[in-house]
Amino acid sequence: MPKSDLYAGIGLMMFGLITLFVLIPTQTSDGGDASISPALLPQICAICITGLAVLLTMQAAGKLKRGKVAGQAVPKTEWISSAAVIAAVGVAVLLFKYVNPAVAAGLLVLGLMLYMGERRIYFLIGIPAFLLIGAWLLFYQVLGTAIG
Amino acid sequence: MLDELYSVAGSAFAIGNLAWILFGVTLGYLVGALPGLGKGTATAVAIPLTFYLEPLSAIAFLVGISKGSTAGSAVSAILLNTPGEPSSTPTAMAGYPLARAGKAQKALKMGLFASVLGDLFSTVVLILVAQELAEYALGIGPVELTAILAFSMVFIAGLSGRSMIKGLIAGLFGILISCMGLEIETGSPRLTFGLLELYDGLPLIPVAIGMLALSEMMIQIGQRQRLSDEADLLKGSTNREDQIVTLADWKNCIRPIVRGSLIGTVVGILPGLGASVGSFLSYGAERRASGRGADFEESGAIEGVAAAESADNAVVPASLVPLFAIGIPGSVIAAILIGAFTIQGITPGPLLFLENKDLILGVYVSMLAASVMLLFIGYFGQNMFARIVRISPALIMPIVVFLCCIGAYLQGGGTFGIGVMIAFGIIGFFSKKYDFSFVTFLIGFVIGPSFELSLRQSLGLVTDLPELLDHPVAIVFAVLAVVGVWRLSVLQRKQMAEMAKAETN
Q: Of the segments B137-151, B347-361, B369-383, which one has the largest average pLDDT value?
C-alpha cells in the first residue's frame, strides 16, 4: 500500500496544484460585485487537497524508507475487466449515437456475457432480447417516455 | 404521533403505494441475495424509475429496496460465504459453518427474523427521534450549520475508511466537484469548461451510479471466477435437516437481537459509521458474551447470525435520522435518497416536517409496512432466493451494467450522463482499490452546495473573529472538528499498528 499511496499522493498533489493555478483562474470569473469570490470554496478545497496530498506522500515515503512495502496490488484480471467494461459501454454509446439504441443495448449485454464466459446460445439470445423488450415495455408503454 | 400516523395511513396503504413497496422490497431482497451486489448498487440503479412516481411511492420504493437488500445479503453470506456487502461478513462467519453443517434453513430463518426485528426497532426510533431533533435544528443559523457540516465531514472522513488523510481528501474532492456549475451568488459559470450540460452542476444520479454500481461491476467482473467457484460449491453444501427455529434458538437469540438492534440504531444515527461498524460491533459483543472463542466461527453460531443481522438492518432506518432532521446524509443510502427527494422537488432537512409533514409521515408508515413485507417475502421466498444465488454472475453482471446505463442516460441528460457515469466509475474503481472512501466523497458532493451557501452567509454575518463568540454552538462544533481530526488520526494509527502486528504474528 505505501507504494500506491506514494503514487496517489504525488498524483493528487499535481491535481491540486493544477486546479489551484490553472483550472480555477481560467474557469472561474472574478465575481464582479459579488461579496465573496466565486473561487473561494474551490480554492479552499484545492489548497487542502494539495496539503493533505503532501502529507500522504510524506507518510508513504517514510513507510517505504522503513521497508514497509506490504499491501495488496490490484490483480491484473481486475484491470483488464475494468478496461473491458469501460470499452463495452463506450462502444455502446457510439452505436447508440450513430446506429440504433436497440443495437447498442443488445450488443452491450451480449458482449459482456461473452466476455464473462457465457456460451449457452439460449441465454446469449434470450437475455438481451428479454432486456430490450422489458425496457421498451417499461419506458415506452408503461412510463410513456422515450429513449434515443 | 400515533394519531398523525393514522391520519396518513390512507395514502400510505393505497394499493399503488403498497405495490411499489412490495416491488421495492422484493427487488431489494433479490439483488441483496445475489453475490457481489449490495444495497448501494440496488438503490442507485433504481433511482431513475422514481422520476415517474408520486413522491411517497418513490421514497417508499427506494426505502423498500434498501431494506430488502440489507436483509437479502444474508442469503449469499450464509449459503455461499460471500457477503453481498461488507456488513454481512460477520453473518457469513457465523452462518456459513451452520450451512455446511446442514442448518442453512435455520440460519436463514433466524437471520430474517433478526433483520426484521432490528429494522422495526430502528424505524420506531426514527419516528420518535427525527421530528424532535428537527425542531432543535430549526433554530440553527448559517454559522452553526457551517460548523456542523464541517464537523460531520471530519467525522465521516475519519470513520469511513482506514486513513483520515485519505478520507478528508475524498470529502474535499466531493465538495470541489460539487462546485461545478453556475455559482450561487453571481450566476456565473464555474469550472464548466464551456459545456452547457455542466451549468446545472454534475448530475447526482450518474455520479452515484458510477461511483457505487459501475465501479463495483468493474471489480466483480474481474473476480468472476471466484464467484462462479463459490456458486458451484453450494451444490454440495445444503442439507434439509434442522430447518426450523426452535424455542431454544429464540431463547439464545433474543438477547443478541436486542443488543444488536440497539447498537445498530446508535451507529446508524451517527453519520459515517455505516452498517459494517454496527454488525461487527454487535457480532463481537455476542462472541465475547458467548465465551466460545474460535469455536464461534468454526462450528457456526446462530446467535452470531442474529447479532450481526439485527445490527446491520437497524443501521438503515436510523441513518435517516440526521437526513430528515438536519439534512445531513449519514450514509450512502441517505445520500442517494437526497437525489430522489431532489427529483421530487423536495429538500431534506428540518423544514421537511413543516412543509411536507404528510409525506414524511407517509414514509414512516410505508417503512413500517416494508418491515412487515420483508418478513413475508423473506420467509415465503426463502427457497426461491436460495436458488437464485446459484445464478451465474455471467448472466447477472451484464444486466446490471445495462441498467446502470439506462439510469445514467435518463437522469444525466442523455449520453452526457453515461459519460459522467463512466468517469465516476473509473474514479470509484480507484477509490475502492486504494482505500479513498467513496462514501465520504459522495457525502461531500451532496452537502457541498449547502456548505458553500452557509459558509457565504457566515462570512457575511461574522466579519470579525470576536463576533464568533456570539455563536457558542458553532465554536463547540469547530473545536470538536479539530479534536476529531486529532483523535481519529491517533485511533487509526493505533489500529494500523495493531493490524501490522497481527500480520507479523
A: B369-383
In angstroms, the separation between the Cα of residue B393 and the nearest Cα of chain A is: 8
What ipTM score was computed for the predicted complex, to two decimals?
Answer: 0.91
Q: B5-22: per-residue pLDDT in tens?
A: 777 777 778 888 899 999
Quote the pTM value. Answer: 0.79
Q: Are residues A117 and A94 in the same domain?
A: yes
**Tens-place pLDDT, residues A80-114:** 888 999 999 999 999 999 998 889 999 999 999 99
Q: Would you call B239 helix, strand, or coil by DSSP?
A: coil
In angstroms, how far is CA B233 from the centroid of its own chain? 30
In a domain, A70, yes or no: no
Chain B, window 303-362: residues with a beta carbon less than 8 angstroms from a chain A beta carbon = none
Split into its structural domains, chain A has a count of 2
Could you tell me if A51 and A103 lie in one domain?
no
Q: Given phi > 0 = left and psi -120 to 50 = alpha, else beta, which region is A7?
A: alpha
Chain A stretch 9-28, residues whose beta carbon is closer than 8 A to a beta carbon of chain B = 12, 19, 23-24, 27-28
Q: Please check whether residues A61 and A83 belong to one and the same domain.
A: no
Q: What is the pLDDT of residue B21?
A: 92
- Tell me: do A52 and A82 sit in the same domain: no
Q: Is A69 on the interface with B (CB under 8 A)?
A: no
Q: Which residues span the domain enclosing A111?
A: 77-142
Backbone φ and ψ of A21, nearest 5°: -100, -15
* Residue B502 contacts A, CB cutoff 8 Å: no
Among candidate residues B318, B238, B205, B239, the one with its CA nearest the CA of residue B271: B318
Domain boundary among A42, A65, A88: A65
Which of B149, B177, B221, B461 is the mutation pick for testing A, counting most A CBs within 10 A?
Answer: B221
